[in-house]
Design a protein that fits this description.
By secondary structure, the chain is an alpha/beta fold. It is built from ten helices and five strands. A five-stranded mixed sheet has the order 1-2-3-4-5, sandwiched between helices.
């Protein structure tokens, strides 16, 4: 049900005439739902912003939230929803902050019974319902965006590229290697090779629970990409179970160096770089 121009004007008048009472009651209802996770002053500020936006929308003759006169009100609701999503509130708790206005408004309109009171409340209630639905939709989009950003950050944290010493970098992989993570591994490894000018890279899969055809293909693509950058890769962490799986799947690593452990890979790279690896025994004092 859309508001008529007269109803929008009556809404704006009612809100302006009882501004303090409405915002205080509004704040009180919302405060009970958030259970102290937001200060009373912050809740009061949010209620006042929504109240002001509603008054302006009513004075401009708002018919529904999606109309041309609902722009400022939508902006205030979007800011509220986004902030609540970032603060860890649920969609229900966020929507209550809007629907609480209906309860505060009903208490006021019950005291001011008039010929158009019921019809006006139904129209006002429909507008509040639109606001609540818009708030939930905006909250969901904000939460999805936040989750996507966090997933990307976790993905980057789970694929570190470590410079061991001059000319040698290592990529210790832990967990499942899917397409998205493999792409991050390749990008970070190639960028590190460019930044450090390293000719050798160790890809350690000790922490990868299982290697199937897809995982092997991801590793091979990373090795080929590194070779195009002028770097040789050594794959370490080839446990007996993984070796049997690779043979059973018929996966060919070709001339790519593979080692059973990271220690073996390090010794191999040290030999390639001409570094002495023989441990020296401490001299006995006579």
């Amino acid at each position: 049900m859309a508001l008529s121009e007269q109803q929008g004007g009556r809404l704006a008048h009612l809100l302006s005439e009882h501004a303090d009472r409405l915002t205080n009651r509004w704040t009180e209802i919302v405060a009970a739902s958030v259970r102290g996770r937001l200060s009373r002053a912050e809740l009061a500020r949010q209620a006042q912003e929504l109240h002001r936006a509603l008054v302006d929308a009513g004075q401009q003759g708002i018919a529904d939230l999606s109309g041309e006169h609902g722009g400022e009100l939508r902006a205030v609701l979007s800011e509220l929803s986004t902030n609540r999503a970032r603060q860890g509130f649920s969609a229900t708790e966020t929507a209550i902050s809007v629907f609480a206005f209906k309860e505060a408004l009903l208490e006021l309109m019950e005291e001011e019974r008039g010929e158009d009171t019921l019809r006006d409340f139904v129209a006002f209630s429909a507008l509040v319902d639109q606001m609540g639905l818009f708030t939930i939709e905006t909250f969901v989009r904000a939460r999805e965006s936040l989750i996507a950003d966090q997933a990307e950050q976790l993905l980057e944290l789970s694929t570190p590229v470590v410079k061991l010493w001059e000319g040698v970098v290592a990529v210790p992989l832990v967990g499942t290697l899917d397409s998205a993570r493999a792409q991050v591994v390749m990008e970070r490894l190639l960028q590190t090779l460019v930044d450090t000018g390293s000719p050798y890279a160790i890809i350690d899969i000790t922490g990868v629970p299982a290697v199937d055809t897809q995982v092997a293909q991801h590793i091979l693509k990373t090795v080929v990409a590194a070779r195009l950058m002028g770097a040789d890769c050594i794959i370490s962490g080839i446990r007996p179970q993984i070796a049997q799986t690779i043979v059973a799947l018929g996966i060919e690593f070709g001339d790519i160096a593979t080692k059973a452990s990271l220690a073996d890979a390090l010794r191999h790279v040290l030999r390639l770089t001409g570094v002495e690896t023989t441990a020296r025994r401490p001299r006995r004092e006579s």
